[in-house]
């Protein structure tokens, strides 16, 4: 079995090489990019339109002017900084809506399609500075091509397992029984570590976007303290997708102090 699992891992690595890589212009990190930003944005746009259509039919779109205007005012300032950081995103069809859901959540898809859930606003009750930290983080995922990277890694993983089964068949061995295990190992080896890295990158870039937009970076710490009170228990860091809360708070605190001069300059 281990021989075949090793075969699967080797083939997955070959799939990555054939898939090609790209260097992110902001982080300088090499990313697996079998799916382009443009492809990811097209998928996102379709999903976003479908979601908004369903939300409208079920009266789940928040149309309260005070809430909507507040969210849009904050995201507009962050978008300005995102475009300054990565100029080609000026062409994105940026958009944001507030969804009436009890879920504590917010997101930004590839191509700049965003949503803030009412549960986040009601349960966390973020200040403008804190809400800017949330949306700066989410915008950074799109800015850093994380959705395209995630789709690329999933595609690479699927190719690797599929090719492994074919390789086994060519050797006269049926390895379909271990394909599921190989897929699970690939998820742990390829997807989770990358997701943790993506969260850390989005923390770093998001707090910078917010500071440049004139939002206090120290609010990142107070925000996550509020999120911890709302959230509850988390799994150990090596198994969790986001960084461990204590690790995250420490890193954010250090980033905040480093970016205070940037924030103060923006306020002036």
Structure description:
The protein is mainly alpha-helical and 268 residues long. The chain has one domain. Strands 3-5-4 form a three-stranded mixed β-sheet, sandwiched between helices. A hairpin with a 6-residue loop joins strand 1 and strand 2. Helix 6 runs antiparallel to helix 7. It is globular. The N terminus is likely disordered.
Short description:
This protein has helices spanning 2-19, 37-57, 65-85, 118-124, 128-143, 146-170, 176-212, 219-231, 245-267, and strands at 21-23, 30-32, 95-99, 106-108, 113-117.
Lay out the secondary structure:
Elements: H1 2-19, E1 21-23, E2 30-32, H2 37-57, H3 65-85, E3 95-99, E4 106-108, E5 113-117, H4 118-124, H5 128-143, H6 146-170, H7 176-212, H8 219-231, H9 245-267
Parallel strand pairs: 3-5
Antiparallel strand pairs: 1-2, 4-5
Helix pairs in contact: 1-6, 1-7, 3-5, 5-7, 5-8, 6-7, 7-9, 8-9
């Amino acid at each position: 079995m281990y021989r075949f699992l090793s075969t699967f891992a080797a083939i997955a690595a070959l799939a990555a090489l054939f898939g090609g890589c790209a260097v992110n212009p902001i982080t300088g990190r090499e990313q697996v990019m079998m799916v382009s930003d443009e492809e990811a944005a097209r998928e996102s746009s379709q999903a976003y339109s479908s979601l908004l259509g369903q939300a409208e039919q079920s009266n789940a779109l928040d149309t309260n002017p005070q809430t909507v205007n507040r969210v849009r005012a904050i995201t507009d300032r962050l978008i300005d900084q995102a475009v300054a950081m990565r100029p080609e995103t000026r062409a994105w069809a940026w958009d944001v809506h507030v969804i009436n859901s009890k879920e504590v959540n917010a997101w930004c898809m590839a191509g700049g399609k965003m949503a803030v859930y009412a549960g986040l606003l009601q349960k966390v009750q973020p200040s403008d500075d804190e809400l800017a930290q949330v949306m700066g983080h989410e915008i950074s995922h799109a800015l850093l091509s994380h959705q395209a990277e995630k789709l690329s890694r999933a595609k690479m993983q699927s190719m690797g397992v599929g090719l492994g089964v074919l390789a086994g068949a060519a050797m006269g061995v049926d390895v379909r029984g271990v394909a599921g295990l190989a897929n699970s190992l690939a998820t742990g080896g390829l997807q989770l570590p990358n997701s943790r890295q993506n969260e850390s990158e989005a923390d770093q870039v998001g707090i910078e976007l917010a500071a440049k937009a004139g939002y206090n970076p120290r609010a990142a710490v107070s925000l996550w303290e509020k999120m911890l009170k709302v959230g509850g228990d988390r799994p150990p860091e090596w198994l969790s997708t986001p960084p461990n809360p204590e690790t995250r708070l420490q890193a954010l605190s250090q980033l905040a102090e480093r970016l205070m001069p940037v924030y103060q300059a923006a306020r002036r």
